[in-house]
Amino acid sequence: MAKTNPGRFFEDYRVGETLIHAVPRTVKMGERALYHMLYPARHALYSSDVFAQSCGLPFSPLEELIGFHVVFGKTVPDVSLNAVANLGYAQGRFVTPVWPGDTLRAVSEVIGVKENSNGKTGVIYVRTRGLNQHDELLVDYVRWVMVRKRDLSAPAPATVVPDLAAAVEAADLVVPRGLDFSRYDFALAGEPHRWGDYAVGERIDHVDGVTVEQAEHMQATRLWQNTAKVHFDATARPDGQRLVYGGHVISLARALSFNGLANAQMIVAINAGAHANPCFAGDTVRAWSEVLDRADTAAPGVGALRLRLVATKGDAPPFALRDEAGKYRPEVLLDLDYWALIPM
Amino acid sequence: MAKTNPGRFFEDYRVGETLIHAVPRTVKMGERALYHMLYPARHALYSSDVFAQSCGLPFSPLEELIGFHVVFGKTVPDVSLNAVANLGYAQGRFVTPVWPGDTLRAVSEVIGVKENSNGKTGVIYVRTRGLNQHDELLVDYVRWVMVRKRDLSAPAPATVVPDLAAAVEAADLVVPRGLDFSRYDFALAGEPHRWGDYAVGERIDHVDGVTVEQAEHMQATRLWQNTAKVHFDATARPDGQRLVYGGHVISLARALSFNGLANAQMIVAINAGAHANPCFAGDTVRAWSEVLDRADTAAPGVGALRLRLVATKGDAPPFALRDEAGKYRPEVLLDLDYWALIPM
Amino acid sequence: MAKTNPGRFFEDYRVGETLIHAVPRTVKMGERALYHMLYPARHALYSSDVFAQSCGLPFSPLEELIGFHVVFGKTVPDVSLNAVANLGYAQGRFVTPVWPGDTLRAVSEVIGVKENSNGKTGVIYVRTRGLNQHDELLVDYVRWVMVRKRDLSAPAPATVVPDLAAAVEAADLVVPRGLDFSRYDFALAGEPHRWGDYAVGERIDHVDGVTVEQAEHMQATRLWQNTAKVHFDATARPDGQRLVYGGHVISLARALSFNGLANAQMIVAINAGAHANPCFAGDTVRAWSEVLDRADTAAPGVGALRLRLVATKGDAPPFALRDEAGKYRPEVLLDLDYWALIPM
C-alpha cells in the first residue's frame, strides 16, 4: 500500500462530500511575532494589547490573515496538490477572532464541479470553514481551483456551478463582540483618517515597496504548513523558479496598505480575489487601494469600507490594473476585494 | 589573559572528565513557532494542543529535535570548535519531553579518546546529557568527533574506545508518561497508516523537496545557539561556502518524512547517525525511509518503528544510499537510524 | 486629502515640540525567540529564566536592544523618513527592563535644530523616550539626524544645539531592581572573566564573523516595525542595494562580543554611537571591543564596564578604527560606546 499522498484529481471530487483536513494547529504569540517579522504589519489593533483593550477587546487578536493562511494551508493536501491554478475566492467572512492559544482546524465541502472542454482538467468549488477548539466558526470562504484529471478517459461529471454573490452584503458582516471605536486613539494608530474621510472611488498609492527574498516567502508559506512543492522545490519547475504563495502577496499588500489605511484595522470579509500573475523572489511588491463602498455597522463608532487592494511588481504605472482588452496587466499580482472595519 | 575561547584540542580531553556546557536556555512557544517556520513540520502531536491532549499529554510538547539541537549547540564550544568532522551518534534516548517554559542545560562526559595514526588529529567520544530545570534527563546520546591536536608533539593518550550498541533496545525505549494512542484520530493526523501497516524492509519515498537557502540554515543553527563559524562565516572556507549544520538536515528530513510517516509521531531514540556528505545552500533536500524493525510498548495503543531516514540532494536515484564499494553515494547527506512511536 | 505619510522635513521641526509616535507594540516571548534566531546572542541572563532568577530577577528580561529597536522603529515615520544620515546617539540610558508582555510606546522631544550651510538640509536633535504600559521609562536617548528641507527657500531657524555629555556618568547608571551578581555562576555564563579581569585600554578581538543575508537584515528590521524604505526596496537606490539598518549591526556586534565579554550581561547606557560606513548583504561582520572605563555600583557584586564596540566588515586589519587623518577606515561599520554590567 502506497504510503504517500498523491493528492486528489478532478474525478475524485463529488458535489456534497465533506473533506476533513488534517493537522490541527495551535497558534500563539510566536506566530504573531513571526507575522511582524515576515510582513511590514503595523495595524495597532494587532500590535498592542493595550490598544486592543482600548477598542473593547480582551487583548490583541491574531491578524485575520493568520487564520486564513493556516486554514488555507490545511486544505492544500486535499484540494490543490494537483491544482493547475487557484482561480478565485468568494464569500469569505471572518466571523470570530483568532486568539493566541486557539487551535485551528479546517473542513471543506465540495459545492461545485465543472470539467473543462479540453477534457484534461476541471474546476472544483469548495466552501472551507476554519473552526477553533470550541467548534466556533472563525472563517469561511469559497475557493475554486483548476485541477488535473488522473484519468483522461474518466467521464465528465454533471456540471454544478454554485451561485456566488459578487460581494458579502454589508448587513452580513460580523463585527467582533465588544468592538468599540468610540474612544479610538488616532495618534497612536498612526493616521488621522476616519471612515468619513474616504470617498467611494478614491484611490490610494501606498508608496512603499518590499523586495521578496526566497528565504522569506518560503518561511512564510511553511509557517502556515502549506507544503505545495512549487513554493519550496527549485527543481519543480523547468525554469528553476519557486512560485511565491499567493497568500504571501496578500499579506504583503495588506501590510503595505497601512500607509494610507492605517485605521482600516480589521478584515471582516473577502468578497473576491484573483492572483493575476505569478510572483517570484526578486520582485519588488507595491500596493494601491480603491474605495469601493462604505457601510455603517451596529457597533459603536465602527464603520466598514469595501476596498480593492491591488499588488503590483516592477515598474508598474500608477494604479496599474487592466489593459485595454480588460486583461490584468503583467505587473499586477493581486486584485483583492475586501471589507475592513474603520473608526467612524 | 586572553579572553576569547580558543576551543579544546585533542590533547585537552581526559577520559572520565565532565564538561559543563554554558548558557542554559529557556524555550517556549516562540521556538515552536520558529520550528514550524524553518521546517515543513506537520506531525499533529507537535502542532495542536488539542490533538496532544487526545493522546494523553497535558499539551503539545516541543519537538524532540528542538531539545536535541539546543543541547547539541551548547556542546559546540567545548567539543567541536576545533573539530574536523562529526563522525557519529549512538545510544541516543529521549527520556522526558521538553515542555514550553523548560530551561535546558547540557553536561558531557568524555568516554573515549583515540589518536589517529597521522599524529595530527584524534577521535574523542562524549556522552552528553540534556537536563531541564528540575534536573530531569531530557535526552542523552553519545557522539564522536575528530579533533585537531594543538601540539603535534603531545604524546598519544591511552586509547579508550567505548563499547557502543548498534541500536537502543526496544525494551529500553521510554514512552512519555500518559501517552495513549487508543483514541488516536487518523483523519486529523493526516494519514491512515498504523503500526501494523509498515513491514520491515519497506521503503518509502517521501516525494517532496526543499531547496535550502543561506538565511534559513543560518537562522535555524543560530536559534540553537550553535555558533560554529563554518555555518555563518563565508570567509571561513576557501570556497566561500557556508556549511549547513548537520542537524538542519536531520530536521528537514524528519519533517519531509511526514508524507508517508505522518503517524510516526514521537522520536524516542537515535540509534546511529552519519552526515555522509556536506550540504550547502542551493541544494534541494529530499528524503526516504526504510522500516528496520518493529516493537510494541507497554503504553496503550503505542507501537514503535525503527526507521532509517536518508536525506539526499540533487538528482539522487530512488533510495540512493551506498555505491558498490559500500561507500555513501555523493548525493547522500544523512543516514539516520531512529525509533519512533506510532499508533498500533 | 492625501492619505499617506510624506514624512517631516527639516523646516517642520520646532524646538520644544513633542512627537507622539504611533503603533504601540506588545512584545513577548516570540520576539525573544526571534532575537536568538536573528543574532548569535548567548548572554545567559537573556537566555535562561533560571539563570536570571539566580541573579535576583523574576525571570529573563528581553534584551535591552529589543527595547531600543522597537522604540527606534516607532520614531522613523516622524523623524527619519526624509533623513539623509543618522549622525549620532548620546545620553542613552536603559532605566527599566522590558519584560515579556510589556507594551512599548515612544515619544520624542525636539531639542535642537541647525540648518546646514548648503541650505538644503539641516540637523535635528531629538530626545526619545520609550515607555511601557505603566508609563515607566524604559529607555531614553538623544539622536541627531540630517534631514532634507522640503522648501529650499524656507528660512533657517535659530540654531539650537543641545549640550550633550560625552558619556553617561557612572553615578547615573540605573541598575535593575533586585540585580545581584554575588552568586553568579561563571561556568553557566560561559567565561570566567570578571570585572577585575578587564583593564582600561584592553582590547578584545571577538574572533567570529557572520555573513549578512538580505532576508535576515530585512526580517530583523521589519520585526521592529522599522519601515524605512532603503532597507526593503531594492529599487530605492541607484545601485540596487538595500542598506542594512544600523541597529542590525549593533545587535550583531553585541552578540559577537559574547566571545570575550560573555559576562558583560546588561547594557545600561549608550554613551555615543556612529554608523561609520554602510553595511550591505554579503558583508561578513566581525567585532572588537576596547575597555574604556570601569566603575562600581551599589548593587551586590555588580560592576560596570564602559566599552567601545567596533563592528567591521571584510578584511579589516586587527582593531581597525581610524586612518591617519582621523577618519573611520572604510571597513568600520560601527563605533559604539556603552556601559555594561558585569559581575565583580
What's the helix and strand layout?
Three copies of one chain form a homotrimer.
Chain A: E1 18-20, E2 25-26, H1 29-38, H2 49-54, H3 64-79, E3 83-94, E4 103-115, E5 121-131, E6 137-148, H4 186-189, E7 203-205, E8 210-211, H5 214-223, H6 246-256, H7 258-261, E9 266-275, E10 284-296, E11 302-313, E12 332-343
Antiparallel strand pairs in A: 1-4, 2-4, 3-6, 3-9, 4-5, 5-6, 7-10, 8-10, 9-12, 10-11, 11-12
Helix pairs in contact in A: 1-5
Description:
- The structure is a homotrimer of 344-residue chains.
- With 344 residues, the first copy, chain A, is an alpha+beta fold.
- The first copy, chain A, has 2 domains: 1-27 and 62-164, Hotdog Thioesterase (Thiol Ester Dehydrase, Chain A, Roll); 167-344, Roll (Thiol Ester Dehydrase, Chain A).
- The first copy, chain A, contains 7 helices and 12 strands.
- The first copy, chain A, has helices spanning 29-38, 49-54, 64-79, 186-189, 214-223, 246-256, 258-261; strands at 18-20, 25-26, 83-94, 103-115, 121-131, 137-148, 203-205, 210-211, 266-275, 284-296, 302-313, 332-343.
- In chain A, strands 1, 2, 3, 4, 5, 6, 7, 8, 9, 10, 11 and 12 form a 12-stranded antiparallel sheet that branches.
- In chain A, a hairpin with a 5-residue loop joins β5 (121-131) and β6.
- In chain A, α1 runs antiparallel to α5 (214-223).
- The longest helix of chain A is centred in the N-terminal third of the chain and has 16 residues, at 64-79.
- The first copy, chain A, starts with 17 loop residues before the first strand and ends with a strand.
- The A-B interface holds A 1, 3-5, 20, 22-31, 33-34, 77, 101, 103, 105, 133, 213-216, 218-220, 222-223, 225, 227, 229, 232-236, 242 and B 28-34, 36-42, 44, 47-51, 60, 187-191, 193, 197, 204-211, 213-216, 219, 259-262, 282, 284.
